[in-house]
Amino acid sequence: MKNENRNEEAVSPVIATILMVAITVVLAGVLYVWASSLAEGNTDGNLDLYVMDAEDAAGSPTDANNDTLVRVTMTQGSDINWAAISVKISVNNGAPITCNNPGSAGATLGCDLVEFGDTSDQFWSVTDGVTISESGQNLCDTSEPCSIKVTVGNTQEGKTLDESSTIAS
């Protein structure tokens, strides 16, 4: 009887080649599906990027309850109706306070938005902005500078358009 030397642990080269081709085809298919879903994500043409700049308003905070705190200017984005805007501020990492939109000053305690720029329409446009001021509540006093985080949101779409921070001093 002939003694054959067989190595039964090795995989045949043909089977190895078939496995490598199969794995490559499966990976290519997965990548194709993933890439096509990314491409379909923004086909509605409604990709709006907003950029708002927040800066310290003129004057220093006092113990009064009507100080101007922050000026926020839109530097990039499309026009958005004031009815869809929500502006919230957080003073020194405190709970967010929703500000009263232009034209509804004093509706609730906290903060008011006073529009500047083109005030003849109902839209917040590039170069337009708002001055955020206290409304019947002392949010920022003279004891220390106030760190203010401003969050601008679109209430109709439930999206945050921009978050900016500044120091009111």
Give descriptors for this structure:
169 residues; alpha+beta; four-stranded antiparallel beta sheet; 1 helix; 36% strand
Explain this structure:
It is a single chain. The protein is an alpha+beta fold and 169 residues long. Helix content is 17%, strand content 36%. It is built from one helix and ten strands; from the N terminus they run H-E-E-E-E-E-E-E-E-E-E. A four-stranded antiparallel β-sheet has the order 1-2-8-6, with no helix packed on it. Strand 4 (85-91) and strand 5 form a beta hairpin. The longest helix is centred in the first third of the chain and has 28 residues, at 13-40. The termini are far apart. The model has no long low-confidence stretch (mean pLDDT 83).
In short:
The chain is α+β, with helices and mostly antiparallel strands and 169 residues long. The protein is 17% helix and 36% strand.
Number of strands: 10
Which value, in Å, is the CA radius of gyration?
A: 29 Å
- The helix content, as a percent range, equals 10-25%
Distance between the termini: 99 Å
Strand fraction: 35-45%
Shape: elongated
Number of helices: 1
Average pLDDT over all residues: 83
Order of helices and strands: HEEEEEEEEEE
**Biggest sheet, strands in spatial order?**
1-2-8-6
Give the biggest beta sheet. Answer: 4 strands, antiparallel
Structural class: alpha+beta
Low-confidence stretches: none
